[in-house]
Every structure is written in C-alpha cells, then in structure tokens.
Amino acid sequence: MTQPEAPQAHLPPRSGRTMEEYIPGLARSRPQLVRLAECLSLAAGVERPLLRRARLRFLPRSSAGLEAELWFSPLVEAASEHSLVLDPAAAAVLRRRLALRPRPFVQDVRDMMVEAHLGAQPVARWFEDLLWADLYPATSTPEYIEEQLRRVLHAVTATGDAGDEIGRWALHYVPRLPSGVRRYDDAWRIQVASSERLGLAPPVDHFPRPPGATAAARALVQRDIPVGVVARSDGLVLSRPPVEGARTVLAAGVRTARVEAASLLAPQSPPVRLELVDDQSVHLPFAVVQRLSVSGEPVQGIAHAGAAYEVAVAAGAEVRVRYAVLLGDCTIVLHADDGTERGRLPSEDGGLPRKSLSLSADGAALAWIEGGTAITYEVPSGRMEAHERAWDAALFVRFASRHTTGFVQFGIGDGQFLLDRGRGLLRTVNGGEPTPVRALWLSQDGECAAFIDGSGVLRIYGPAELEGASAPDVTAVTSTADAESLAWAHADGTVYVRVIGDDQRLVDCGAAPWQITSLAMSEDGRWITAVGGDSRLLLWELVDGASVPHVRRLNFCADRVFALPGGEWAVSGTGGPVELTTDDGRQYVITPDTEALSHPVDVPGWIRGEVIAVVRAGRDPFTFVDLAESMASVRAAGVTCLAVGPITPTVSGDVEGIPDGEEIPDSLGDFGGFASLLMSAHHHGVRIVVDMDLRAVYAVGRILNSMRQWLDHDVDGLRLVGDRRLDADVLRDVRHLLDGYDDRVLLGPHTTGLPATADSDFGATGAFAACDVVVRALEGELITGMTEDALVRKSLVNAQLPLGAARPGALWGHLLPDYPTSPGRTALALRVLLGLPGCPIVPLSLLQSQYPEVSRMLELRRDHLALSRGDCHELPLPRPYLHGFVRRHGDEIVLCVANTGSDREVVHVTPDDLGATGDARLLDLFDGTVTPCSDDIPATVAVEGVAVRWYRLLPIPRTSGPGA
C-alpha cells in the first residue's frame, strides 16, 4: 500500500444531507453501487485490483462502469490514480448495513479482504482487524480490542525511525476507527504519541479522558531535549542545540521542545508558550513595569513578552487606567491600578506605527502619534478622535481646574511647536527649520512644558520664571505636579534642580554613574529618582538645600521612572528573572546578573565562584596533546577552567622565546602541544591557568620574564605553586605585570593557615593584596568533620570570614585534603565544597570520571549566581549530622543541605528560615520538583544518607493569567 496522503476536504452528498440520510436513498436508486461499497467498507484502502475483485465476486453481473461510478461517488473521501479511501462517515454507515446481511456472506467479505491485504502494511491489517472486531460488538471482547490497541501503541512508542513510519499510518487510520474503538484510552494515546513523534498537534478528542491523559501519552515517546538558555539584560535567548556557554535546561519532547516562560516579576501575567525545533534560536525579551513602595520595595509588577516601545503611567491617586504599554506590534495594552489588564488597542494589520504615548493623570484619557497624526482615546467611552495637525511628537495632558476639565496639547511638527492651553499659542523654533526631538515633557497641571531637541538642548516654556530657559547636553527632564520644582540631567550624569518660589535656588545633586535616561520627582519635590539602563534606581533626597544620594537595587534593567502618589514609584524596563516550565512539569528559574556592576572591578569577573579543575604532572600523567584532544569531554563534564602544570620558569634571564622542551617536564610535552591545548580549550569555552613552580628560580627578573612569555600567549591566569615564599615586593611586581593584560588572574601559593593567620603563612604582611584568589586547604575539616558528624561547621565559618589584606573582590580558593579517605566521603566532601563560597580547586578526575553526577552540580553552580557569587549563612538543623547553609545573591536564595548520616532524613523549612517573607515555593535544583513553602505550611526537604541537595526559593509564586 502507498504512503497515506493528507486527507482532502470532506465531500458531502450533493443534496447536503448526512450520510445516514443519503445512503438509504442512494441504495434505493443505485443498489449495486451501495452493495459494492458495503463489500469494501472493511478495507483500510481500496486498490484498483481489490475493487475489481470485489465487484466480480459479489456482483458478477455488474459492468465495469460500476467501478468508475463508485470511484467518483460522494462515498469516496479521496482517490488517487491507484487507490481510493471511503469517506469515514459513509464507511461507518456501510459497515452497519453490511452487518445486517447473512453472516456467511459477511465472513466471505472478510476472508476476501484478509487474502487481498496479506502483504499490506501491518498497521493497515491491524486497522482492518479492529473494523472486523467492531462489526459484531456483542461477540468481540474488550480484552481483544485492548490487546490490539496495545500492540500498535507499543510499536508507535518504540525507538528508531520505524516508530515514525508507524506513527504516520496510525494518524491516518485511528481517526477512521469506529467510535466504540476510539473511546479506548489507548486509541487516544496512539494518536498523541504519533503526533508527538512527528512534531504535530494531536487531533481533536471527542471523548472524556482522565486528567493528564494527553501529557502521559506524550511522555511515552518523549526524551530529554537540551535547550540552551542565555539570560540577557532584556530577556532570554533559547537555542536548540545549546549555543556555547549557554545554560542548559532539559525539556521533554521528540522533534519539538515545548517551554512556557513567565516573568517572576509579574505573577498575574500569563506565560508564553514556545516550541523549538532543531537548529532554531528564539529571542524572548520581556518588558517589565514594577511599582515600588516608599522604601523602594517591589509591591506590584506587570510584564509582557516582547519588546515595549514606550510606557505611560497615570500619576493620579484614583485612576481608571494606571499603566499603558506600547508593544512591539504597536498594540497598546491598558492595565488597572492593581496591574490587571483592562483592554487592548490593537493596530491595524499593516497600519501606521505608533509613538509618543501619553496618559492623563486620572488615567481616563490616552494619546499617541500614529503616522504623524495625533490620536486621543477616551477610556470610559472608548471614543477615539484624530487631530488634523501632523505631528513628529506630541503629548496630551488632561487636567482639571475648579470650573472645567480639558486638555493641554504640546507637540512639534514641521519645525514648529504648539503649546495649547486653550489659547492656541503657536511658536516657531529655529526659524521654522525642522527640529528633531529627543523627548517631550509636560507637567501634570499643563502649566510647564519642555522638549529636548536633537542636539540635546533643553527648552522650557512657562511658568514665567522659566519661560525661554534652556540648557545644553540634557538627556532627561521632570518636575513636580505643580511645576514648582524642575529637575534635569546632563549627558555627564549630573542632575540639577531649579526650585521656583520665594527661595529660588539651583541645587546640584551630583552625578550619576551613567547617562540618565529618565527622571521623576515626588509630589512634594523632596525626592528625585533616576535610572540609566541598568538595575540601579538612584534617589536624591533634597534636605536643607542639599541632596543626599541613595541607591536601590532592581531585579531588571530600568530605563523609565515615574512618580506615583504617596511617595511610590513606577519603573519600567526589560529583563528580570524568568521561570521556565517544561511539558513534564520541570521548572527552571533563569536570573540575569543584575548585580554585576556592584562588585569591585579589581578582580576579573569570570573568576568569581569559578570551579578550577587541576591536572598535575606525576599524579595525573598526561600530555598537552592528549588533553587538547579530550577537551570536548572536559567541557561536557561542566568544567570551564583548567589549571595545568607545574611549569618551571626559564633559567636564562634574557630569553625572549617560549621555554623549550628541556625546561618543561617530559610528562607535559613541548610547547607546540601546549599551543594546541590552549586553542582547543578556548574553542570549547575553557580557560587555562598555568601552575608556576618557583622553587628552582630565585631571580625576580627570570620569574617575571617567564610569566610574561606565558601571558603573551593568552593563558588566562597563573597559579603560584610549591613551598617557595615570595615577599610582598615581588608579589606586587607580579601583580603589576598581570594588570597589563585583560582579565588575567593570579592564584596565590597554597596556605594551610586559617584566615586569621593565613597572611603570615602566605608571606610578608600585606602579600594578599596582590592575589585574586588566595589558596588554602580545608585542613581536613570536610573529611574529619563529616566523620565526627560535625560537617563543615568550621569550614563554613572560615568561608565567611573576610580576606583582610586581600585586594578588593579577592576570593578563597578551597583545596580538598590530600590524604586518602573513603570514596563515599570524598564524593560527599566534593559536593559540599561545590556549595561553599569561593573557588573550589579539585582534581579533574573527580569532576570528569569518578563522580559523573557532579557535572550537573557544576552547571547549576554556574547558572545560579547565589551558588557562585552569593554570601553564606549557616541554617541550624535539628540533627547533628544534618548541615545546611543558605547562599544569597540579590533576591536569589539557594538552600544547600548535606546529610552525613547513613539514613534518609527529612527537615521542614519556611521562608523565614531562609531570610524571606511571604508565601513561596521551594524548587529542587536537581530534579525540578516544586514544593509549596510558607510560614504556615513549611516545605518538606528530604535528603538521602551521605548526600547533598540544593533548593532554590521562589519568593513570588506564579499565577497563570487568562489563556495560560
């Protein structure tokens, strides 16, 4: 039989009646035609030879024209050159008529069909078997039908290309089965599994099923598909296969990976469903508006998938609409004061672009520019009005006085601007020459207006004290509602406030760390806020003629800020944490690093929390070439930094070239091999740190010369090894050398002392100031401590102590103890170490081969900033052999629990235990399961014996909105 074709549209009887009505009438007028069709109603498909055989066997006196009549009759759904398929509804009626004929005759029809299709596709013969079983329901047992369905379901869910082929046939035949057979759950599972294999949506199901039946059927054929996720400042980039350096999440699927993405900043916003096929990349930005309390805490949020061109916010105490968001497709979305959506104003297909969005203080009027024409929209009535004047940009402010309510219009077009308070005041700018406009601004009472032209010049109009004033190089402007105070920002970040009144004065608020994109001022003129495209909200408090700066940290990148009643603020921007949910219920939280700018820049950012895998000559015999060839497997294990060596510096002080093989231990090979290692490592996204053994060389010039040669060949850092102590002056010279290269790190020599005494052990006083990472051993605390059921207590305390004399941002580099111990204890020590602050320094063999599950922990540590960059606090637990510590980075909180006992233990955790408030969820980072977590209903955390678990606290539960 030929491959099934896509079904054609159903051809109804010419009279428009149903087949139940049509076929009896047709049987009276054309009895031979209907009888021939009855004899073929048990066939999966009717080939020309079968059609002729059936006519000659059961209607021997008919002519060949009967075959042609059936071929082109309404009883046929589709016909090709060689075969036809009966209409499903017609076939059902024909089979019922056939069942009423004498049983020997029907059996003869069945025998002919079996004989004709002995060589047909197995799934076609299976389909005909089920048609026959349904012909006499009283004699066919449910067990037989279930067995037949299970047989095909097993074939469809089998691995390999054969399952795809069977799935295509199954999707062709199963919808044509009688309703009595399609009611079975396995019949539905066959269709869903086949659709999933082929990347299609399942057909419509007309029968009630148990909850989760579709998801369970998909799971029969699904496998874990790796999807790469890169968190950007504006949202996410998802890719199949994962791009180099992306975080990898696992989504269940076959040809298509399905993921739902929802912003954690907006619990009521509906998720976005994405379907990724192979070799596809999707950029998913998120536009965010967040309301902040007087203290700067987030109290509300809205989010939209996709970019937002503009955001407008109503400033009144009581409003009809609080937020208006102009999306990338030019749709304007309106939100009420509580963040719920109040309506949408879609743009016509192929319509003109929209811009210059403004919202009146009471939220009852909206205005924008559409194709150069100003449009006003009344929210209560829905009335929309177009204004005749052509605008390049315009703002409309609705104000209310004692006697009337009206509009102030302020716009620019054709080189002129119009400030209309009902008096029609028209002014010309630059002699009528066209003037590009960067920004327009109007006070809430409509009495003060300003615009920033294309050259950055601010021009102010009204009140009289500011009429005609201007300022150069301005990027943002704002005022109080009554225009009694006006503030603006210059391109260099400086902010000035002009206070109007009896005590007129100009206040210099100082400079922001970036060019300000938006300003807002509180109603009383006491506070000024600014944003500049990153995660910081700057506030200046005006006190006694001076300004006091404050900084608030946001969870997204903000570019607009608005003043709200009662001292609150609304901030809009992009990005923020996003929750991904896969079809099988696994959840992942992706958080961009909004705190990157708050860290000291003295230490390269990539080394913060980096896990360093060590390959040592003598202990791990290797050559550079061998290591280069295995770099793909190294990276697959989650390793992104290798320390190799040791390397002995050159003997000659004036050598300009790279050391040759005589100065490099034989186990390492020559430098040509190292060049291939370096090239392969960087190609796979792995950094290389070279171990420098200083024991054999005492001349400072030789040490520095050798280091410079290695740095010139793009190694990513140097680690000082051996027992040689360097005094502070030498270390400072080494530090100055590395500072001449971008993003190179220096790992200090191994010290066995505790933080309080490590400085003296390391060398001269103040020597830590030269190092990015200060290396120390844990002195057996991980191993011995676990044996005595006092895991890591001293290690946790030590890990939290400051480095004292170290340079800003420096880290501890923790070494596992060298002495032998049981494999189970070593594995536990490694897992605990990966949850501690600083830089774990461990043998590559532990990460790559002996404990393959650790690679998952390496990826989680890299993906969750709390694990690599967060602080660390111990969580008291009820058992002496249970140990917990909480890692926090910004709003990201991760709980690490270690069980040093041999039995499974269960503990209960509340948000308050983790330093959070309100209802939340606890996400198991290892298996993706989610547990409710609140102060009233603690989350249950189960940890097996001699094991470690990591949990991410999700402080804002997601509430799916409409259409979720």
TrEMBL record:
Highest taxon, organism lineage: Bacteria
SUPFAM superfamilies, per database record: (Trans)glycosidases (SSF51445), Tricorn protease domain 2 (SSF69322)
Alphabetical list of InterPro entries matching this protein: GH (IPR017853), Glyco_hydro_b (IPR013780), WD40/YVTN_repeat-like_dom_sf (IPR015943)
Source organism (scientific name): Streptomyces melanogenes
Name used for this protein in its record: Uncharacterized protein
